[in-house]
Amino acid sequence: MISIYTEVDRAQNWIDRYRGRLPHFACVLGFTETALIEGISAAGQHPSDRLLTAHADAEFLLNGITPDVTFPLPPLIAGVSPTVISRAIVQTLKIPTFLINAGLPQPLSVPSQVLSTTIARCVSTGDALPIAVVQDLFAQGLAIGRDWSRAHPGEVLMIGECVVAGTTTALAVLMGLGIDAVGRVNSSHSTCNHAQKLAVVRQGLERFRTRSKTLASRPQTPNSGGFDWIQGVDPVFQLLAAVGDPMQPVAAGMAIGATVQSGVLLAGGTQMLAVYAIAQALVVSQNLAWDPDQVVVGTTRWVAEDPSGDTVGLARAIGRVPLLGTGLDFSTSRYEGLRLYEQGFVKEGVGAGGCGIAAALYQDWSNQRLVETIEDLLDKMAK
Q1: pTM higher than the cut 0.90
Q2: Domain with 209 in it: what CATH number?
Q3: From the first residue on, what is the mean pLDDT of each consecutive set of 10 residues in the chain (383 residues)?
Q4: Which end of the chain is more exposed for a tag (fewer CB within 10 A), N or C?
Q5: Cα–Cα distances in Å, from 344 out to 91, 188, 294, 309, 363?
């Protein structure tokens, strides 16, 4: 029930080291106005739905089915919200779960650790977040990761995300880091809308280049990637401020910090591959210690084997990323909304792939057990 797609030896060593361990799950939530672009994401039928998708997902992840709902799960273009998958597994295995609000339009209805109230502007602006906010989010994430690791040595921190249109911000950051990501990212659409994403990202990166030439206080260097970096400010932070989202610096900081004494499962697809790349860059630019052998990226096979993307190629382009995938299969499910995952809809989100991997890692769950657990929750929702 766990497939290894890249860095086989390192991935298998990680699995062997943490087999039988119940992870803790931290879900980092953020918002980018990129989500309001028509058609950019299928995580909500309309832009107004996507404005509060993270709020609804967070509420359901922690509370499950309740009579009084503040933020109902939004209708999707197709399929069942991935937070249903995560909730079913978290509830059944009693996985300790906590939420981190990195920047949302409204307060959450459930307990969370609030790091910022600043949301990201659209990627196309090339001016998504203030650099000071990015720096602060990273510092807080690093501290959270270090503190958690010291309190739970030898355990696993599973870091998930909920950022609508986060695959577009991931593409932007990956391209800004010089990684060949074009045509390789994923989407909640059944077929990835690469052309739309790329147009938005190129617009943002070009605006950032134009602005950076105005702001820069030193000449451009041959390795600057076309940007004139502001002297004294980490270029990675500048890039995240230009075209990133609030989740990225937090999750990267947590991943770096947690490797002090613990394992890390970055639970997601394209977005967590971008987080891994950000962490790789920041440990160099910030001169930080981390143990990459403690970190894997874990997603669903719908992402890892997406024919409209190239997740494995992207992982290899980033370099030395152990990529895992849950074998979760809904082809015989009683629910059409789950069977639609087999047609490429939704694919991943709210740590769903990581939760599937955690179930196999901790209790060696079969696909039948996984599907029955998720269907049981949908049965209760239907009632």
Answers
A1: yes
A2: 3.40.50.10210
A3: 98 98 98 96 83 96 94 87 97 98 97 98 98 98 98 98 97 96 94 96 95 59 61 92 98 97 97 98 96 98 96 97 98 97 95 98 97 98 92
A4: C
A5: 26, 8, 30, 11, 27
